[in-house]
Amino acid sequence: MSTPTHRYLSLGAGVQSSTVLLLAARGEIPTFDAAIFADTGWEPAPVYAHLRRLQRIAAAAKIPIVRVAAGDIRRDALDPTHRFASMPLFTLGPHGERGMARRQCTGEYKIKPIKEEVRRRLGYPHPARVPAGLVAEMAIGISLDEIGRARDADVAYMRNTFPLLNLGWQRKDCLAFLADHELADTPRSACVGCPYRTDAEWARLRRDDPTGWDDAVAFDAAIRHGSARANAAGQRLRGQFFLHRQRVSLDQVTLHPRANAGADAPGCGPWTCPHTDPPIEAGDDAVATPGREVGH
Fold first, then answer.
1. 56-89 pLDDT, tens digit each
2. Which bin fits 13, alpha (ψ -120 to 50), beta or left (φ > 0)?
3. What is the pTM of this model?
4. Is residue 283 part of a domain?
């Protein structure tokens, strides 16, 4: 296979990918043709503010930050005419069964638009076939303590690389590097209503971003009985969906934030969102059915 001549960064705007971008901007690792940010349309306000800061840093280093999107994940989920890309929502069955819905949102709203942008930049947008041997490098911000998430690309026209692994850096090294360059407040990337949030993160959202918290509370109520499209088609959920694992309305959840909880947790970048669902609580029964919504 020929040596890739196209180099991109998958930019989630969280700690690790921000570190990789800053390293490139400072000339400490090879630069990128572009940093690609997949915008779900529902990132917290601090993430968008941080992205604007990164854009200034990248522009000075002549690294364009490109925004791509497959839609607005919140709006699409509540649109009865739009296909519902399942989120890892907590489920409560009609007889108290507990589980989680299948996660499709990362692939739909992050990975897919990034791949489409790479193909476009290679000159072969879908459905054109990318010639054999034409390959783009995709740098992914995975640190040494997350090495289990490092995977090969699942398409022949992309080759995943992991600059932080090459440096032997852990997340704590990234945090120290960002702090040294006045980016200590780099946020953890995840949608406002991401069910993977810890109680500490929910508490932080409620305290620091009241608008975002109210938005998540409203969304939690809106998805209680399944997707808008399924309901419009008369396929009401046999059970309920929730954003929080306690499986009560978000504004009624009793949060138990632990000191530093989530401080070292990875964000939901395109290739770094958890590959498996969070551990099911003791006594829970998994009722989520892969490939379709629970109870439909």
1. 999 999 999 999 999 999 999 999 999 888 899 9
2. left
3. 0.87
4. no
